[in-house]
Amino acid sequence: MDIDAYLRALPKAELHLHIEGTLEPELLFAMAQRNGVKLRYPSVESLRAAYEFTDLQSFLDIYYEGAGVLRTERDFHDLAWAYLERAHADGVRHAEVFFDPQTHTSRRVPIEAVIRGLTAAFREAEKAWGLTARLILCFLRHLSEEEALETFDQARPYLDHVSAVGLDSSERGHPPVKFRRAFAKARAEGLKAVAHAGEEGPAEYVWQALDELKVSRIDHGVRCAEDPALMDRLRREETPLTMCPLSNVKLRVVETIERHNLKSLLHAGLRVTVNSDDPAYFGGYVLDNFRAARAALDLQPAELAQLARNSIEASFLPDADKRRLCSEIDGLPSLA
Ligand code: HPA
Ligand code: ZN
Fold first, then answer.
1. Span 276-316, pLDDT tens digits
2. Ligand 2 centroid from CA 254, angstroms
């Protein structure tokens, strides 16, 4: 088995994936056409050419614009199905998928259409390949906590389909503590919590996500390396970091992938995982992220297996499923 086959064969859980960020330009154009939405780009090529970002906000502006073509339950189904086909081909066995209800309800798309469409595709993928997928409902942090609470109320009839709440969008100036009550409410309903922190924001936001929002994982967490006491805590509490190397390069969180700190954090004993974030915008799905990180950081098979094992352990899967997938990892032939 060569290294590429090995990476594909490793059972992986994808834990940091925005479903709206899997909207490939071809599908975006097809949806615009069938929904009668006018785009300011004349072609797929010209849209793709606009994917040049200087920071998180420059990406978010185009990402929210792209999501404007998603209108119907069928659109959300087709979006999720296209992602799951690709994830299956990459050896993803379980996915915990972010969605941004406010991006859609603000355009008068009912949350029911969003959740029904996505979960219909999830059921089909489980039936076809045994690939399980669950939803993480994200609050947009540039909006108010009041709006987050309203969104949570709208989602209440569908909470059976939701594993956790998350926090995304523009990080700087929107600290986790702003959403303390919304997260407490979600946790009181039995949901888990995760939050983007330490992507562009400071290590202080990672502390807040842990202390104020009581999150089970940190999404990104790149900047935790600036704070040794935080590193200690993340190691002691085995808090997973869902890292996204290609995203961090595109949004200039790191200068080059060779400078990414995922390997040093892994060696420091943190529970690092590799994920794709917004693969249609950042140039690669989860296997591409593994390949790029391996090449740039000279990751060895044992380190790659550890990253895959971490993803399974860090997931919200039942323990029996975690054990089964981890023993599959242990049973893979070792690379010569
Ligand atoms: N960071 C914050 N918000 C997001 C991202 C991200 O990487 N992707 C989609 N929404
Ligand atoms: Zn993200």
1. 999 999 999 999 999 999 999 999 999 999 999 999 999 99
2. 15
Alpha carbon distances (Å) from 226 to 131, 214, 245, 305: 37, 21, 18, 27
Pocket lined around ligand 1, Cβ cut-off 6 Å: 18, 21, 56, 168-169, 196, 199, 247, 277-278
Q: Is residue 144 part of a domain?
A: yes
Q: Which ligand is nearest to the CA of 247?
A: 1
Task: Compute, in angstroms, the gap from residue 330 CA to the centroid of ligand 1.
Answer: 33
Output the CA 31–ligand 2 centroid distance in Å: 23
CATH value at residue 231: 3.20.20.140
Other Cβ atoms less than 10 A from the Cβ of 225: the count is 16
What's at 309, amino acid-wise?
A: R
If one counts the domains in the chain, the total is 1
pLDDT tens for each residue of 30-80? 999 999 999 999 999 999 999 999 999 999 999 999 999 999 999 999 999
Domain around 223: 3-315
Name residues with Cβ closer than 5 Å to ligand 2, which is an ion: 277
Q: Is residue 162 part of a domain?
A: yes
Residues known to be catalytic: 199
Residue 333 in any domain: the answer is no
DSSP string over 123-145: HHHHHHH--EEEEEEEEETTS-H
Which ligand 1 atom is at minimum distance from the Cα of 278?
8
pLDDT tens-digit readout, 164-177: 999 999 999 999 99
Q: Find how far residue 254's CA is from the centre of its chain.
A: 18
